[in-house]
Design goal:
- This protein has 549 residues and is an alpha+beta fold.
- It contains 21 helices and 14 strands.
- The protein has a four-stranded mixed sheet, with helices on both faces. A four-stranded antiparallel sheet has the order 11-13-12-14.
- Strand 6, helix 13 and strand 7 form a beta-alpha-beta unit.
Length: 549
């Protein structure tokens, strides 16, 4: 269904942004990284509990016994692995989790221990060597070598992991298990040195087993802050690409093909071979001052800009038309956000010089843009070259509308016309032409759908694949609200359904939506039950808002 264009003020754009914002995509405790780390820390504490009689006393926290039991736990996890590579990774991961937990509990850090541990070995152990893995002629060998004057945490884990994983393949005289216990014992001893460190570990362990015995499963709540603090950096790095994954999932649900219709990695736009005159012309076209950009690119003609999405990507018969940058900030990332704003103008001038018909969309979301980064949001939205902005909850409408404006037909929009026309291909083609799609584009989309198995002819009607059919039917409700709805203030005693993409208060009464849904789908088996299920699904996904008085 062809979605209408709209022109709204900056204030109205900001109001819509606030109304449909996704504050955060995921909490640290909801991630697989967190759950995996929590399981490892729990496993380690249970092993330490065996060594200390469930942390019976501070005196029970003996580094030697803890090292022996932790090495045994590492050997157990090695036995559960299917390959040497997996064994090494599992061993190192478990050792890293042990050491990181001790750091967090005691307030120590790798930055200090990497210098203090070699001193401990020299002064207290009178020994500074350890068996190092050496492969000669395809054979596993270990030789005593100096550890050096700086020993980082990751090296400790790697040395112990190598010794324990490969000791079965080693035929020499060195007792690698005993050496692993010695090194780990010394490292634990160094971490627990100093006033209060052992007491802090004992306090955690004692509380852990007290909770485990009195209120099973509550012990994980005690570990939650430790685990969250450890993994938050890696979770943040992973979360940075989640909005892009979500948008790719949306486009796939429209029937688009990854790597063909949309890119799966960033796309680089290079400044190489672009002439000064082209840059100045592009800057003028975008109503921007291009002098600084020209000087910048002239000083480094190899400079590049990356886009999270260019659409269509490599669709036959198309060249890139829509360029999308993704910025999601769940908190205050001011320095990064300011830099993005500064780079955007130059990036767009460079892109327009290379692609004269380029359209720029901003994929913006997150609580950071509601609060501390509000000024950056305004800058991005009020740039003359910003064609529109999309959020996670508005992408199904606003990105599809952008594709419609350039004449690009998605399988989902093709299916909408088939649904309205009872699967009649000729009538669907005719309506798509009326909506402004070229005959060639309609044929391209249809041929693609047939080739990909999204559609096939059955008894002179077009049958749509179940998955695409369900997604198309659900999203048709969004289109109906956009097309037939209006700016709505809810009357007392009524229920209305609102969608993004048309300002902050665009909606339709619930009853009117139901009648329109039935009218559009009257030639297929729909019914009130299906309508209710589709509305409930859209509401759960946050794609609509249902308000009543």
């Amino acid at each position: 269904m062809k979605l209408p264009s709209i022109s709204i003020s900056l204030e109205e754009k900001l109001s819509e942004f606030d109304n449909w914002i996704t504050a955060s995509i995921q909490q640290v405790t909801e991630t697989e990284t967190y759950r995996s780390e929590l399981a490892k820390i729990g496993r380690i504490l249970n092993s330490l509990g065996d060594a200390t009689n469930e942390f019976e006393s501070v005196q029970s926290c003996q580094p030697e016994r803890m090292a022996i039991y932790c090495v045994a736990e590492v050997e157990k996890i090695i036995s559960e692995s299917d390959s040497i590579a997996e064994s090494l990774k599992s061993a190192v991961d478990l050792l890293d989790s042990l050491i990181s937990m001790l750091f967090l509990v005691t307030g120590k850090s790798d930055n200090n221990l990497k210098c203090q541990f070699p001193v401990y070995l020299f002064q207290s152990e009178n020994r500074t060597v350890f068996p190092i893995l050496r492969r000669t002629g395809g054979k596993i060998n270990f030789e005593f070598e100096e550890l050096g004057r700086v020993i980082k945490q990751e090296r400790i884990s790697k040395l112990i992991g190598d010794a324990l994983v490969l000791r079965e393949k080693y035929n020499g005289s060195i007792d690698l298990e005993a050496e692993a216990v010695w090194l780990l014992q010394g490292y634990i001893n160094t971490i627990l040195s100093g006033e209060g460190s052992t007491e802090q570990l004992w306090a955690l362990g004692s509380c852990y087993f007290s909770l485990k015995n009195k209120s099973p499963d509550m012990e994980n709540s005690l570990l939650a802050p430790i685990v969250a603090f450890k993994v938050r950096g890696s979770v943040a790095a992973q979360s940075g690409h989640l909005p892009e994954k979500i948008l790719r999932r949306f486009m796939a649900s429209w029937g688009l093909k990854s790597g063909v219709d949309f890119n799966i990695d960033d796309v680089i736009i290079s400044g190489r071979d672009i002439q000064k005159g082209e840059l100045i012309e592009a800057a003028a076209d975008l109503h921007e001052d291009g002098d600084a950009v020209v000087d910048d690119l002239n000083s480094d003609p190899t400079k590049t800009r990356a886009y999270d999405f260019i659409l269509p990507y490599k669709t036959p018969g198309w060249s890139p038309s829509i360029f999308v940058q993704s910025q999601f900030y769940a908190g205050d990332s001011g320095s990064v956000s300011h830099k993005v704003v500064d780079q955007t103008r130059a990036s767009r001038i460079l892109t327009r010089a290379k692609y004269p018909r380029a359209i720029f969309l901003e994929y913006l979301d997150g609580a950071g843009y509601y609060s501390s980064l509000r000024r950056d949001l305004k800058h991005m939205l009020e740039m003359p070259s910003t064609s529109d902005f999309i959020q996670i909850r508005s992408a199904h409408i606003k990105l599809r509308r952008a594709l419609q404006l350039v004449g690009y037909l998605t399988p989902l929009d093709f299916v909408h016309e088939l649904l309205i026309n009872g699967g009649n291909l000729a009538e669907a083609r005719k309506k798509l032409n009326t909506d402004g799609y070229s005959t060639e584009e309609v044929s391209r989309c249809y041929d693609f759908c047939v080739t990909e198995g999204l559609m096939h002819t059955e008894s002179e009607k077009i049958r749509v694949s179940p998955r695409l059919l369900v997604n198309s039917r659900r999203l048709m409700l969004l289109d109906i609200i956009v097309i037939e709805g209006a700016r709505t203030d809810i009357a007392r005693g009524s229920v209305a359904v609102f969608v993004p993409g048309m300002g902050s208060k665009h909606g339709i009464s619930f009853n009117t939506l139901g009648r329109s849904y039935q009218r559009h789908l009257s030639l297929i088996d729909s019914g009130a039950a299906r309508f209710t299920l589709d509305v409930e699904w859209l509401n759960r996904q946050g794609l609509i808002q249902i308000r009543s008085t």
